[in-house]
Amino acid sequence: MIKKTARYKITFAYDGSNFAGMQVQPHQRTVEQVLTVAVNRIAKKPQPPVAVIASGRTDAKVHALGQVAHFDLPFEIEPVALLKALNSSLPLDVLVKKVEPVSFDFHARFSAHNKRYRYRVSQGEFVNPFKRDYTGHFKYPLDVAKMQLACQDFVGEHDFTSFVASGSNVKSHVRTIYSATVVPDNTQNEIVLEFSGSGFLYNQVRIMVAVLLEIGTGQRAVDDIPKILAGKDRQLARWTAPASGLYLVSVGYENNLHNTTKSIDEKGNLK
Question: Is 117 annotated to bind ligand?
Fold first, then answer.
């Protein structure tokens, strides 16, 4: 057994374009896999290996601006040194932005109390080759005011059975959405949707986005979302927006109670 002498929380970003998701999969390049290799190299390849525990999984092609993970090292190391060591060992499509020593009762997944996701919709008539990996393309005109009105029906505690993809194995589909917004970004010819909630189900955000896009085109009524929620039937929501437009923006931890010292940002400054 590794002697657990220090636990570290890292906040990191990644370009999901060339990853098969966050979670380790056989014969696939994943974010967890490259992080685990880097952490164990720094830990001098102990046995058993150090496990990297993320706040949750993201699917293939999905990006993150503020994913969170924790791991235990068999020795203590200064946060700034660990930050530099990790970024020196990681591929260029992953960046550790912050390192924080935390107490052993901190858990990246189970201590989290909210997550924020962003979805970017490109509105060009044709697919922009420089955006194809970072937005979901939707060329049809959208009534943003209708989308803004409709998205408020997601706010609150609901059973999201109609908004979870097959393959989910969680016991409860009840989740709480704290906020939902739809904002046009005219400088980029994009529509930006954001959702903050207690947690999200498999493909939930992408299915929510797809329904809002249908409302924006008039294919659905502006008051359809309560009916879809009440129906508890995945077929009512129909399709799923592409993974390329989705970003995990941040993971929240209540009052940051588990931190044991100040954190270090990517420039080596105390936060």
Answer: yes
